[in-house]
Specification:
- With about 725 residues, this protein is of the alpha/beta class.
- It contains 22 helices and 13 strands.
- Helices cover about 55% and strands about 5% of the residues.
- Strand 5 and strand 6 form a beta hairpin.
- Helix 4 packs antiparallel against helix 5.
- The chain is globular.
- The relative contact order is 0.11.
Length: about 725
Amino acid sequence: MVKYSSCSSFLVRFPAFFLVYTIILLEVISYFFLRFFIYFYEKFYYRCRTTKKVRSEWNNILINGSSYSEWFSVAADLDHSLGMNDGNLDIQFEQDAVVLKLADRLKSALFSRRGNKSQFVKRLTKETARDLISDLRLACSPHLGSVGNEDSYRWNHRGTNTTLHEFSELTVSALLHILRTRDIYQKREGKSQRLRFFQSLKQNYGTTALCMSGGAANGYFHLGMVKALLHYGMLPNIITGSSAGSLIGACIASKTDQELEEFLDQDSSIICKFFQPVEGSLFSWFWRWAKTGAAVDPSSWYDKLNVLMNGLWTFKEAYIRTGRDLFICVFDGSDQTRVLNWRTTPDVLIASAVIASSALPHIMHGQQLRVKKRDGTIIPLNDGTNSYFDGSLKHDIPLEHLNKHFSQLNVRYTIVSQVEPHILPFFYYPKGSPGDPEIARRGHGLRGGFVLSLAERFLKLDIRKYLSLVRDLGLTPNAVQDFDDAFLQKTWGDVTIRPNVEIADYLHVFSNPTNVSMKNKIKRGELATYPYLCMISHRHKIEQCLKNCCREAANAVMTTVDGNISRMKLNDENDVSGGGGDGNDDGNDDGNLLPSSLSLSSSLSLLAEERSNNNSLKTLSVHESRQLERERDQANALLEQEKSRCEYLQRSWDEEKLQRMKMEADVDGISTMMEEDTYHLRQRSQSSHKRRISVGGVISRNNSRNSNNSNNIYPQ
């Protein structure tokens, strides 16, 4: 917050504020008029080049929604009627030429042609393998030329590019060919070198993160995006969210894939019951704001989040349960944004982080984070900050924090779901975007022509210039200075998914979802994601292939290690049975291999002890350096195997927990029936016991009477 105490600041500040915002208001009005003119300009070409049947089918898909296959078929008919191509690269552009030449080298290294059509995979030699490995290092770069760029998929409504699809297929085929070819790594260290090669490619290629913006009720569009990515197995494990995005992120991070799929497949009337944050009427909001300074009281949100997440989970508990890395942005009232994660705040409740990230100033008071102790008690977090606010005010998409403070995650690619109501009207791509191409010149021009695109760009940059001036000089009144960065921060990523918003969405931005609105937003969220699925799948395919290659190469290293260990044990047994050896080193590398259960540090200490006992040289020999490399590879292989084992155990634990919950429900019902039966049996036993006592008393009285009668008949 900027504060000035000079005399000129008091005299000029407010006149300058009104002058600058008057200019901004006039430019915003001009900008929207310009966008409407571009919209009608494109509609004119759209109606002239398409038939009524194609338009009706496309409008029916947009209104009622559909599966991806149906949407793709109708979009293909629409592109065919508009004369749009399938998407390709142009060798005249430098960034496209790099990809095309690399694809040709990969194709020539992998395949040979017999006749005119048939192809078969080549057998690699050392020279061709060396060239292929160098090409793969280039192909697995995170940002290579036009690969992964939205401009490469802007040629049609389907969001396809045949050249990049072929490039991704060639890259995957080359990786698998290197993995399964035995002629490349033939030396003793071959499998270890192969593992290091794939690990370096994986490190260079990086991982993908999903970033969900705020947007109040527009945040329910995220559910449709998540549903589409989850259905095709492309939902990243790294998830960030702020404000409404943190709410959806908490729902995702607290559920396994099976639970999340079951949750999203429910009827919209059931889903909307989990998202009812707004309580009271507009009049009660105004009355509460006049009394307390905040319109919303979030005291009941903990119970609602408990139902949504099936428990008040901490960041660490949710990560252990699902394996998803959740990041939530909060703002402490100064210029600092804090990103909460299981690494930095493992014991903080996700529910408290969601409420704090949703605390919009003047709508809610600042919220305090809560932590869960080991005994299960929940207490406030004592970190010197008593109140946190909406994190989307400063960092709606925390890309800088992911790359700077969490560099171990190696995030190189981001999928952004942007639903902010004040940001979406200003998203505009002059050359077109996936699912929204330039129609007039079939992708080879600018939307609305050069003059209109120039005017649109000029107005947008001029608005940002004046907003930066207001923020840097602190012209805004102190009560609303927290909102200065809302328009100036980075709100896009490598892939930016944006739903088509309507005027009704702005009217109900602070309302609870209904059955109809929830169904509509999930459907529109899916439709907004469909044009980007091809683009995301090309990246996801290579990323998963590198992960599988690392796992398979690690298993091969461990198989070799286990075989060497078994041979070592057999040799030791033979030495013991033969009276032992002479104690001299025969120079065999297998004798120096350590068991796989030893860690890297213990193996290094044992090696140092062995060198000191043998009075070896102080410098490492070639043999010892190779041994250290093998031990490092073994440690990496153990780590990869342990990760795979943890993933398998996590899935097994989730399935077992679901079965246990069902069994507990059955057992509760059975126990209730048994308790009722036991109660009835006890009642019956008590009544029968009383009957036996009464019958015994009658019999004893009858016996006494009979004895008296007998005495009277036979007197002494």
